[in-house]
From TrEMBL:
Stated name of the protein: Sugar ABC transporter substrate-binding protein
CDD domains the UniProt entry points to: PBP2_MalE
Family matches, as Pfam families: SBP_bac_1
PROSITE patterns, per database record: PROKAR_LIPOPROTEIN
Superkingdom of the source species: Bacteria
Length: 422
């Protein structure tokens, strides 16, 4: 997924555990406490917001409406490139020169919350039950919420409907059906029945859901469980697609996957919602009837990976009240629908999905369904380091360089050595 992968790249490249506490003292080991509830009076004063990538470029359009509704407030948006965002936030915290609000990649929350730089979400600011569970969980660090989920991404299965129809198969729901489905697409001429990354950068996002689908997890309390039977089965199942030649051991970069899918060389792949428009644009009108999306196939569940972008208020914001009021407004269902129109970011608030723009769309409605069964990794400061080990060892498995048992033993050992950073 474009946004998920971009955020992960920044984390992997620059993950550090910070000790600074922004513009103030910060809290102790348990972090700072919220400074109280936020009233319903109009927002006033200036609010500085950092937002990454496309979100930073277009947020000003939405902020203008908030300014109309709150005439005495000014929202100043700074667009920050994803590739420099992580280090820029880290430097700002260390130097005590932070904005009021920052957008965060979901896998960054644990790392930056550990610095004491962000204020916990005030009680009663939003109804946490209004968000998708997996999305809200990305804000939680040591049972404390920092900020809110702003937009969400998840993965579903893209597949060639014409190849599936020719093979007489339907979108798979189980693991057994999934493998048979991919083989059937190959029989219709696809080189890869399903395209999977053969390990390496961010491949943990593809294999981890296979463990979750069996009831496995990354942590049990503060103990890593990366060598559990569920992880063993996940690695074996994932590796079997390469052993059996169902997925080519080639990592397809941006642009390649679309062209190979349109050409019929790739029968299916996993991705986020942005690929719908790319395929419709690049494949032309005649291609619209040749592909569809479906929830990911699973074992005991059909859990997928979720990510996206969160919003957090710095612990020493110069305009705390107006900052939280803007964040709260961005989480209103009506605002989230408008934000989709501007940015194509998917809403984190479930009620927004009742709007026909989502519920009546054959692609987006599947993403909404998948978001009810999606999950994110734990918000621990060291996740970037731990996930990089999973990426590395999974690649050794798919290339036949090591056994699953040895790979997971290495993952568990190194994860324990890295620790949770908490």
């Amino acid at each position: 997924m474009r946004r998920l992968t971009t955020a992960g790249a920044v984390v992997a490249a620059g993950a550090i555990i910070l000790t600074g506490c922004g513009r103030g003292d910060g809290g102790g080991a348990s972090g700072p406490e919220s400074k109280g509830s936020i009233d319903d009076e109009p927002a006033t004063g200036a609010v500085e917001v950092w937002a990454m990538g496309n979100e930073g470029e277009v947020l000003g359009q939405l902020a203008a409406q908030f300014e109309e509704e709150n005439p005495d407030v000014t929202i100043d948006v700074t667009a920050v490139p994803w590739e420099s965002a992580h280090d820029r936030i880290a430097t700002a915290i260390a130097g005590g020169e932070t904005p009021d609000i920052s957008m965060l990649g979901t896998t960054w929350v644990g790392e930056f919350a550990a610095t004491g730089a962000f204020e916990p979400t005030p009680d009663g600011l939003v109804d946490e039950g209004s968000f998708f569970d997996g999305s809200w969980d990305t804000t939680i660090v040591d049972d404390v919420a920092y900020g809110i989920p702003w937009y969400v991404d998840t993965r579903v299965l893209y597949y060639r409907t014409d190849l599936a129809e020719a093979a007489g198969v339907e979108a798979p729901e189980t693991w057994d059906e999934y493998k048979a489905f991919a083989k059937a697409l190959q029989a219709q001429g696809a080189t890869s029945g399903v395209s999977l990354p053969p390990g390496g950068f961010d491949s943990w996002q593809y294999v981890t859901p296979l463990a979750w689908q069996q009831g496995g997890d990354i942590l049990d309390g503060e103990t890593f469980t990366l060598d559990s039977p569920e992880w063993q089965e996940a690695f074996e199942f994932y590796g079997s697609f390469f052993e059996e030649g169902i997925s080519e051991p080639v990592r397809l970069e941006g642009g390649e996957i679309e062209q190979k899918f349109i050409a019929g060389e790739v029968g299916s792949f996993y991705s986020g919602p942005f690929h719908v428009s790319l395929l419709l644009e690049q494949g032309g009108a005649e291609f619209a009837d040749k592909f569809a999306v479906a929830m990911v196939p699973g074992a005991d569940s059909r859990t997928s990976f979720t990510g996206g972008g969160n919003l957090a208020v710095f612990n020493d914001s110069d305009n705390r009240d107006a900052s939280w009021k803007f964040v709260r407004w961005l989480a209103e269902p009506e605002t989230q629908v408008q934000w989709y129109d501007i940015s194509t970011d998917l809403p984190s608030v479930e009620a927004a999905w009742d709007d026909p723009v989502f519920s009546d769309d054959p692609y987006l409605s599947v993403f909404g369904e998948q978001l009810t069964d999606s999950k994110a990794p734990p918000a621990i400061p060291t996740w970037a380091q731990v996930s990089a080990v999973i990426d590395q060892e999974l690649e050794k498995v798919t290339r036949g360089e090591t056994s699953v048992e040895d790979a997971l033993a290495a993952v568990q050992q190194q994860a324990e050595s890295i620790g949770t950073g908490q």
